[in-house]
Amino acid sequence: MSTTKHFLQFKDLSSEEVEHLFERTRWIKERFLRYERYWPLADRTLVMIFEKASTRTRLSFEAGMHQLGGTAIYLNTRDTQLGRGEPVEDAAQVISRMCDIVMIRTFEQEIVERFARNSRVPVINGLTNEYHPCQTLADIFTYVEHRGPIRGKTVAWIGDSNNVCNTWLQAAEVLDFNVHVSTPRGYEVEPERAGLYGTDHYEQFSDPMAAARDADLVTTDVWTSMGFEAENDERRRAFQDWQVDVDMMRVARPDALFMHCLPAHRGEEVAAEVIDGPQSVVWEEAANRMHTQKALLEYLLLGHV
Ligand code: CP
Ligand code: NVA
Question: What is the 3-class SS of the chain, one letter each residue?
Answer without folding.
Answer: CCCCCCECCHHHCCHHHHHHHHHHHHHHHHHHHCCCCCCCCCCCEEEEEECCCCCHHHHHHHHHHHHCCCEEEEEECCCCHHHHCCCHHHHHHHHCCCCCEEEEECCCHHHHHHHHHCCCCCEEECCCCCCCHHHHHHHHHHHHHHHCCCCCCEEEEECCCCHHHHHHHHHHHHHCCEEEEECCCCCCCCHHHHCCCCCCCEEEECCHHHHHCCCCEEEECCCCCCCCHHHHHHHHHHCCCCCECHHHHHHCCCCCEEEECCCCCECCCECHHHHCCCCECHHHHHHHHHHHHHHHHHHHHHCCC
